[in-house]
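Pasting as-is:
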Amino acid sequence: MKKHNRPSWDEYFITITKEVATRSSCLRRKVGAVLVKNNRIISTGYNGSVRNTPHCENVGCLRNKLNVAPGTRHELCRGLHAEQNALLFAANSGVTIEGSTVYCMNQPCILCAKMLVQAGIKRVVYIEDYPDDFAKEIFKESRVKLEKFQKNSQKV
């Protein structure tokens, strides 16, 4: 009997995270986030403009206009980060996220890190680095596992 090469849970959820990111309306970076508990998706989010406001693709990117460096001046953006949207969607739906894992495109910024820690997230799996060492420090201090995704390194 031929063995089927199933993806690990991490590979599976990272693949879905990439698909969620395709909904992003951000001009600088397409980001997705998936909240998972007991190997079940409980919420998703992508970065984009605040509800009922124009998307950056229609009005332009303030961060680009002002030449704001990644990892700085987060308030100079009309959108929310993917992690924030995933948390807010879960909250609006009454979904408990305590003890869950978040899969995301980038290591979360300090704003998202604080929100994820406060929400009770226990593990963060990300694909790409992000220039925010303070966020790494917050995750370490709060004992939230921060793991860079490595394909084929996770158990099935």
